[in-house]
Design a protein that fits this description.
Layout (H helix, E strand, L loop, with lengths): L2 E6 L5 E7 L7 E5 L7 H12 L3 E5 L10 H9 L3 H16 L6 E6 L1 H12 L6 E4 L17 E6 L7 H13 L4 E6 L21 H19 L1
Parallel strand pairs: 3-4, 3-5, 5-6, 6-7, 7-8
Antiparallel strand pairs: 1-2, 2-4
Helix pairs in contact: 3-4
């Protein structure tokens, strides 16, 4: 089990986060929350990475708030300053994990997937990135400019981040010769989350797809961070 910490942001302020893994010489992974917030599911991902020998830090972007239903989650997400989130909270989390000279990557789900790509595009501290079914709008930056190894997991039947739009991201990665892997799943949005908070019809857990995606992510981290 992890613990709640405060870590420094580049602007000198501090941010809260959930830290799993006690070995400060281990490579690090920043886990960026879904639009629900820092839920038990997000903490479990960090705990699972810690069990594999990483230190994992989940920045609390909503500052202690979580959502119980989709409308509430959407409200929290719309109130989030994405620029501040990736350039301060996520970057600060990466700096925290890299204090002992170890590599650190960033991963995220849904809203966190979009922030993962923003971080990969704009934050120099990230050594690798894994994005799950989320991406920012095209005006937020060009994925083709990413220079670090990137792995993406997209759902063919995603109603929020459509396959058509995800295919455009994949094309930009190819055109930019980004070192990348893209995997497609016969699944819906949120297929890795077995415990969606709300009862709002957003639960599309797919055990097989989730297992395959996890195994691929773990292999990717072993190849890029160790």
């Amino acid at each position: 089990m992890g613990t709640t910490i405060e870590f420094a942001r580049p602007d000198g302020k501090t941010a809260p986060g959930y830290l799993a893994g006690t070995d400060d010489k281990a490579p690090g992974i920043v886990v960026i929350e879904e639009w629900w917030g820092v839920t038990p599911s997000m903490k479990k991902i960090a705990d699972d990475y810690a069990a594999l020998g990483y230190r994992a830090l989940v920045p609390d972007l909503y500052r202690g708030r979580t959502a119980a239903v989709g409308d509430e989650a959407n409200h929290l997400m719309e109130g989030l300053n994405f620029q501040d989130a990736f350039s301060q909270d996520v970057r600060g989390a990466l700096q925290y994990l890299k204090q002992n000279g170890k590599k650190a990557g960033v991963t995220g789900y849904c809203m966190g997937g979009a922030l993962t790509l923003l971080t990969a595009m704009h934050v120099k501290e990230a050594d690798a990135a894994v994005c799950f079914y989320g991406f920012p709008p095209s005006e937020a930056g060009d994925p083709g400019t990413i220079e670090i190894p990137l792995q993406c997991h997209f759902a063919k039947h995603d109603e929020f981040f459509t396959a058509q739009a995800a295919s455009q991201i994949e094309q930009r990665l190819q055109d930019g010769k980004v070192p990348h892997e893209v995997y497609w799943y016969d699944a819906e949005h949120g297929f890795c989350n077995p415990n969606p908070l709300g009862q709002s019809g957003l639960g599309h857990y797919n055990a097989q797809a989730a297992h395959e995606a996890w195994e691929r992510a773990v292999r990717f981290w072993n190849n890029t961070l160790r």
